[in-house]
User: Fold this.
Amino acid sequence: MKFLSRFYIFIVFAILYAPILVVVLFSFNASGNLSSFSGFTFYWYKDLFRSGEAIEALKNSLVLALCSSALATVLGTLASFSIAHSKSKTYQTIMKSVTNIPMMNPDIVTGVSMMLLFVGVALIFKLNNVLGFWTMLIAHTTFNLPYVILSILPKFKQMDKHLIEAALDLGCTPTQTFFKIEVPAIMPGIISGLMMSFTLSLDDFVISHFVSSPDFKTLPLYIYNQTAHEVKFSMYALCTLMIFTILILLIAVNLAGAKRDKKPTAKQRRVKGGAAK
Amino acid sequence: MMKNKRSAFERVASSPYIVWSAIFIIAPLLFVAYFAFTDRDGNFTFENILSLSSYSETFIMSLGFSLIATTVCLLIGYPLAYCMSRTSERTRSILMVLLMLPMWISLLIRTYSLMALLDNGGLVSSFLVSIGLPKLTFIGTDAAVILGMIYDFLPYMVLPIYTSLIKIDRRYLEASADLGCNSMQTLLKVILPLTTPGVVSGVTMVFVPSISTFYISQKLGGGSFDLIGDTIERQFQNQVTYHTGAAVSLVMMILILISLAIMNKFSDNEEEIIV
Assistant:
């Protein structure tokens, strides 16, 4: 029984990882075909960076991920603060439900709805070419916000309320209390929210697909365009690079999390609670 | 006095997010409804919604594909989560990271990886040829698209079920054994009901992205597939068809909300039965 169960786990994980390993392996394949591995090369990596487009997309992705995760973290911290401190149950329920909308909706609906907002506003104000960096930044910040809030909100719940009262009694202004007492207490949540948004933003394809313009392409959009018609091994190289980046980020998040506590990450919580509420 | 200052600060803190979510979460959904119910001149019309009857086949096919994918994910995922929950603590934490990693890799990349493996000149097909089987064309078939959904979303099924399995109090299992249940009865009467919330979560997290996907059918379906996602994506290539696209999106969103509500109702009832 034990052997069977181990064997089953092994088989499923092997299938889960086989395609990823194929991409990583064949990004180093000297012969340009998919049926056999005939020697080790870095050619495809050089090929990838020969085109300015890939570098441009990498730059765009990084700038966008940095800006949107920072913005989402600031907004999300303030929002979690107000939800956690609000005395009104109705306010809390409304804010939590609104926060859930982007997580419950399929990505395609989020993408399409934001695109219609931008296009609709552009029509009203008679603007042209409204899609680009700014619309991407808004869309990414919006889909990152729920994850930030979900990773910070529990930290507010866990913190000792008496500390806040003590700080206020001892003459701190609410602003000082926020920055000196609450922010340090919720820091683990802020950091994991920030790292998660950064990763999500780097990974996102579906929402970006709808709110981007050809002038501002991120890496997933670039991969999508490049792989539309044929197999390109330089794209395997790019996928490999992205997989390893995510792997390193994930390990960093886990190490940081393991040091602090053994609470589930907000991504797990999303999965657990995604349908429940 | 202190209280007043405090609540003033709270108001300032809450306003950016209220404004942000009103403009960028609520307003976009209103825009979808607006586009769905207007024509190109901005007049109110039911035309877009009514024209959806010509897409009924698309809706049925998408529903069928995603139901099959969800069922298979559940059939593979539940035993996997169960086996994982029975391993030692150390093994569990390693398996957890292994399960999370694919969830963090862009779905586009994972779909593309699957395509690399199954491609017509790829490893699987050349392996089949080398052991003497006929050459199979896999890309472009129904099976390929469904397999893509299963492959992409399986971790999203396993994780919530695993989490609810881990949370089960071992004493329930001991009690059920003491009271004379064999392990099969314990599984059916104790473990399954207790993990219903996890199953509902998992089913949602596989069903919603499966029914709305477009890149899986584009990449693995060889461009010949028309799922709901593809239809929406195509309508938004051209400004002329935005209104139809909005109508399709709106109907899909409502269908998904209804199925979520039904499933949540189902899981709530189950919980009441347990209590």
The domain at 52-269 of chain A is CATH 1.10.3720.10 (MetI-like fold). Chain A has twelve helices and no strands.
